[in-house]
Amino acid sequence: MIWFFMLCYHIGLSLSVEVEVSQYPSELIIKPKDKVQIKCSHDKTDFRVMLWYQRSPGDSALKLIGYLNYGTFTPEDKYKDQFNVTGDLSGGGKKTSTLVFKDTGPEQAAVYFCAASKAR
């Protein structure tokens, strides 16, 4: 049986306002074909965009998976068959977004980041 490891981190994006973003779980050890979801949330009512990034082992670049704007997910072409993002960032109160893995395998072993922004 093959196991692989994922780390999940968060980053807050803002020009002048600090945003505390929570991401959970913070780390995962999973098997191929496991159902995986990573959640991200914050309390800034005017930050209605959440972006998701992947950093692969041995690569320092953050690759944009896609972003959720209010309730609409826009994936990068490379990732549209690998991930979905759900959530609704409209309204007041806590904003939550979930990165859903459509399939899991060794190619998804990476560090994942979420970020919050006022605009894309």
Question: Can you tell me about this structure?
Answer:
- By secondary structure, the protein is mainly beta.
- The protein has a single domain, classed as Immunoglobulin-like (Sandwich), CATH 2.60.40.
- It is 0% helix and 48% strand.
- It is built from no helices and 10 strands.
- The protein has strands at residues 4-10, 22-24, 27-30, 37-42, 49-55, 63-69, 72-75, 83-87, 95-101, 111-117.
- The strands form 2 sheets. The chain has a 6-stranded mixed beta sheet, with no helix packed on it. It has a 4-stranded antiparallel beta sheet with strand order 2-4-9-8, with no helix packed on it.
CATH-defined architecture = Sandwich
Q: Which outline best applies?
A: globular
CATH class, named: Mainly Beta
- Rounded mean pLDDT is 84
Helix content: under 10%
Number of helices: 0
Can you summarize the main beta sheet? 6 strands, mixed
How many discrete domains?
1
Give the low-confidence spans.
1-5, 10-16
Oligomeric status: single chain
Query: Which secondary-structure class do the elements indicate?
Result: mainly beta
Descriptive labels:
Ig-like domain-containing protein; Immunoglobulin-like; 48% strand; mainly beta; four-stranded antiparallel beta sheet; globular; 10 strands; disordered N terminus; 120 residues; six-stranded mixed beta sheet
